[in-house]
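Table S7 (text form). Paired inputs.
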Amino acid sequence: MIPYLEINTLCISCDNCNLICPENAILKNGTQYIVETWSCTLCNACVEVCPVDCIKLITEETKKKIF
């Protein structure tokens, strides 16, 4: 499994992640944000700037904990 970033429902649409992403991999869809996995380099800039900690790195290990 390839690791990827996921934005959960705690998102407050502050736009910080979208503005800081060096790859422009975060798209706004109405009031939700979507991470384009093919553009994202997992630099974690968005994770660090998120004020509500709603962006999570999903790996094989974290997926096992969730499910």
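Next pair, protein 2 of 2.
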Amino acid sequence: MSDALRTSHLTKVYGAGDLAVRALDDVTLSLPSGRFTSIMGSSGSGKSTFMHVVAGLERATSGTVVIGDLDLSSAGDDALTRMRRDHVGFIFPSFNLLPNYSVRQNVLLPLRLGRRRPEGPWFERIVETLGLGGLLAKTPEQLSGGQQQRAAIARALLGRPEVILADEPTGSLDSATSTEVLELLRICVREFGQTVVMASHDVAAAAFAEQTVLLSDGRVAGKVSNPTTRSILTALEALDVRVGIE
């Protein structure tokens, strides 16, 4: 199985001298294609910084990030922009839907910006699978939080990206809706063959993945295969790391 995302000795430092903060410290990971991986850690563990750096939203201080065949560490600004547009799908906790656009327009927006035509059958399959058929003409304010996140997932899927990066995708949702969204991320992997990398501080959310990477103080502190809430908690207790359960 090939890797969708690889990092080697990835380091990110903010500030300098006595004020320097090492948010990522020598992170080396290989995340396989077609799998659901969760990045788990408490506040300040480095998981959000990791997501920003591998997405090309921030430059690493040192080390490499490779998505597909593109080495982000040597890519120029234009190449990074194309990578984010064409090879990465983003899912945010706050949905990031344009308020004056319909669901259809929001879902199609990244393709329109890249001057790419949507594939009709693929669009229809995504809409049907995510239950958006009756919502395409509505605006975000007419939707529940769960419906808005479904639209955001559809937007991330439509361009067939190398990887979907989901940063705390259930952070703005209640427990029942969070479970619904996490099940949809599983569907993205199982039915669409998509690669999903999700950052979360919540043990129950992280356990939806096929593997969990534990971050602590900017370092990879451990990995859990076929995670459950109990197995993640056991691993965290061994590391003396405290996180939340929702």
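The two ends are 33 Å apart (CA to CA).
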